[in-house]
Design goal:
The complex is a heterodimer of chains A (about 230) and B (about 210).
Chain A (H helix, E strand, L loop, with lengths): L14 H22 L5 H23 L7 H25 L9 H4 L30 H7 L25 H6 L7 H10 L22 H12 L3
Chain B lengths: L2 H6 L11 H28 L16 H26 L3 H31 L8 H33 L1 H4 L2 H30 L9
Helix pairs in contact in B: 2-5, 2-7, 3-4, 3-7, 4-5, 5-7
The chains are: A mainly alpha (about 230), B mainly alpha (about 210).
């Protein structure tokens, strides 16, 4: 083993080739941005973007990182990990996404709690209290507890309503009437439950999940009445 | 050319016949694929479910022209990097210094773009903690920015080293390994630019003013 093994590797690409590859990468990037502003159907556009970026990816790895000229071990090591990473990413997408890429209305379609909950709030993790009212009349406090509202909002004297993620709800009637001009207390509370991100109280994060879809109209009305009566 | 002798005396013999530092770098970059792949997938899954920002999808906040410019800067820095590697192979110390400096400079400009972008997003009300889009976006691009920062520090130290111990800094393998890392950071951005920016914004109705 007297020979210098590194010298057995093929020579690196020439300067001219580097500049050529650099030019191609620049042109492809310009094409991507230009195509972005054309009105092409989404699926076609997305596939085009993916193909072009994969081409750029491959060019940089093969020439700039000279994998094409390097030993096979480097290539297998990197390609193997890359394929594994793509597999993990794809599996994750298939498991948790409906492929509606970038659609802000996805959460409206899904009846299950949205991944909002992964951050601070998870209704299934909040201890739900069996109020024993499943057969009886719907009460606002029952809805409040069963939907897990207490996991994030304090109501004094109410067992389980101890969360600090959102604002406390005592005296909501007075406070909510002064929140947004033109909104009565009831209108403000309705809006805040139907569209939690519409008005977020300063100092709190916009993390409240949309739970309106999980309530019947009767439950919703009972909840509103309950909230208006908290003093 | 006194450093040439030092370079030639630096060959190590390994069981694979390959430079173990290069092997380590490729293994590291392989693990980085999994790191960034996971962050990108998490962003893709969660961005569509994020709370609206001023009545719009938070992705509307992304500035395509600005990011195209920063993408271009990072791309050119990769070209500068291969020039540096080519210069070390020609044993041209001055050119090595020039191209290393240019690469680090363009990397810093890219970081400047990112700092500007982050500040303007926070001004518009998108932070890492108030929105699912913001959480996954800032985590992903923040980690990428951290990688660029480390790359800039690495290239700058090679540049400084080239004045103190030319034989070390001009060693092709040393520059080559820094280059592998730098190009990897560039290709991660190629993917982020496509998936997070271009595909993330296309087809969104962002006509309302933010």
């Amino acid at each position: 083993m007297q020979s210098h093994n590194q010298h057995e590797e093929k020579p690196h690409p020439s300067l001219k080739l580097y500049l050529g590859v650099g030019t191609i990468l620049t042109i492809v990037t310009i094409i991507e941005v230009a195509v972005f502003y054309l009105s092409i159907p989404g699926a076609v556009l997305a596939s085009l973007f993916i193909v072009l970026s994969l081409a750029k990816f491959a060019l940089v790895v093969l020439y700039f990182m000279h994998l094409r000229y390097d030993h096979r071990i480097f290539g297998s090591l990197f390609t193997g990990s890359l394929l594994l990473a793509m597999g993990v990413g794809l599996a994750f997408l298939l498991l948790f996404s409906n492929f509606d890429i970038g659609d802000p209305n996805v959460s409206a379609i899904s009846p299950t709690p949205t991944p909002h909950s992964l951050m601070l709030y998870d209704p299934s993790a909040v201890q739900t209290v069996d109020t024993g009212q499943s057969d009886g009349p719907v009460t606002g406090s029952g809805v409040f507890i069963n939907k897990g509202c207490g996991g994030c909002h304090v109501v004094e004297g109410m067992t389980g309503a101890i969360g600090m993620v959102g604002p406390g709800l005592n005296g909501l009637l007075d406070r909510s009437s002064q929140r947004i001009s033109g909104y009565s207390s009831e209108e403000y509370i309705r809006e805040s439950i139907e569209n939690p991100s519409a008005y977020v109280v300063e100092g709190f994060a916009a993390v409240m999940p949309e739970l309106r879809g999980q309530m019947t109209n009767e439950e919703f009305e009972a909840l509103i009445t309950f909230l208006l009566e908290l003093d | 050319m006194s450093y040439m002798k030092d370079i030639n005396s630096e060959h190590h013999y390994t069981s694979t016949g390959l430079d173990h530092r290069k092997l380590l770098m490729w293994a590291f970059l392989g693990s980085e694929c999994l790191f960034f792949g996971s962050l990108i997938a998490v962003h893709m899954v969660n961005r569509g479910q994020a709370a609206l920002l001023h009545g719009l999808s938070p992705a509307c906040i992304l500035d395509i022209p600005l990011t195209s410019a920063s993408t271009f800067v990072l791309l050119i820095s990769s070209v500068m990097m291969v020039m540096a590697v080519a210069a070390t192979e020609r044993m041209n110390l001055n050119q090595t210094r020039l191209w290393l400096f240019m690469t680090a400079l363009l990397g810093s400009i890219f970081l400047g773009f990112q700092v500007y972008e982050f500040i303007s997003f926070v001004d518009h009300g998108l932070t890492i903690r108030n929105n699912l889009f913001g959480s996954t976006f800032f985590t992903l691009t923040g980690f990428h920015g951290a990688h660029v920062t480390i790359g800039v520090i690495w290239l700058t130290s090679l540049l400084v080293l080239s004045f103190i111990r030319p034989s070390k800094a001009a060693n092709p393998v040393n520059v080559d390994i820094a280059g592998l890392y730098w190009h990897f950071v560039d290709i991660v951005w190629i993917v982020i630019f496509t998936v997070v920016y271009l595909i993330g914004v296309m087809e969104l109705d962002c006509s309302k003013a933010m």
